[in-house]
Amino acid sequence: MTSKRVAQRGLLVCYQVVIVFLIFSLTCLYSAITCIAGFIDATGNLAHRCLIQWARVSLAVAGLRIHVSGLERLEANKPYIFMPNHASFLDILLLLAYVPHNFRFIIKKESLAVPLLGWALYKCGDIAMDRKNPWNALRSLRRSADPLKNGISIVVFPEGTRSPNGEIHDFKSALFILPIRSRTPVVPVLIEGSFGALKRGSILLYPSPLKITFYDPIA
After folding, report:
1. N-term to C-term CA, the chain
2. pTM
3. How would residue 1 be classed by pLDDT, with cut points 50, 70 and 90?
């Protein structure tokens, strides 16, 4: 290994350590702020805006190059059901930072058990789904229709969980009950590069370019 490659690897390791520390610190700080905001505003809107700020600051601190396209396809005051692929924790940050609508996530029930961040998600009004219990999952989908009636969009990962290899896997057909019954357009969202930047089960971030594309809404 040449001295240049050794230096590059050393710089990468330093970058990864610093970014892990900063993003962890930001997550703790903004989770606490979000919880406080949730007590101030019971609608969850203020808490959601706090998480948006967390995502934008975290991505800026990481120094990632992000290209966004397709926003012109969306109407500003119309609720949608955004359905992105899911390969990395970074997807959460990207969606919070770049979905231009007030929205709520449909998240797995286990996410609420994450210390502090889980409580912040709860105060935002994100909807927890029990993937192991079909009846409870169906009730969660029914609850998801309430924000849509109030003009608040929904973000749900149709694969159900993160991809283990970065490729798009089969969709959970039950999730399509929500757009069919609510008659809300679905916006397919393609996130590229997030798996290479932060693989599942890892905390080490690689400064890879990312791209998020919003496609035409589907009735």
Report:
1. 55
2. 0.91
3. low
Which of 46, 56, 51, 162 has the alpha carbon at shortest distance from 117? 51
210 vs 16, higher pLDDT: 210
Q: pLDDT, tens digit, for every residue of 154-213?
A: 999 998 888 888 888 888 888 888 899 899 999 999 999 999 999 877 888 998 899 999
- DSSP letters along the chain, please? --HHHHHHHHHHHHHHHHHHHHHHHHHHHHHHHHHHHHHH-TTSHHHHHHHHHHHHHHHHHHT--EEEE-GGGS-TT---EEEE---STHHHHHHHHH--S-EEEEEEGGGGGSTTHHHHHHHHTPEEE-TT-HHHHHHHHHHHHHHHHTT-EEE--TTSS--SSSS-----GGGGHHHHHHT--EEEEEEESHHHHS-TT--------EEEEEPPPB-
Contact 25, 62 (CB under 8 A): no
User: Angle at Cα 179 formed by Cα 50 and Cα 117, nearest 5°?
Assistant: 25
| Whether the Cβ atoms of residue 148 and residue 154 lie closer than 8 Å to each other | yes
Asked whether residue 47 carries a pLDDT value surpassing 90, the answer given is yes
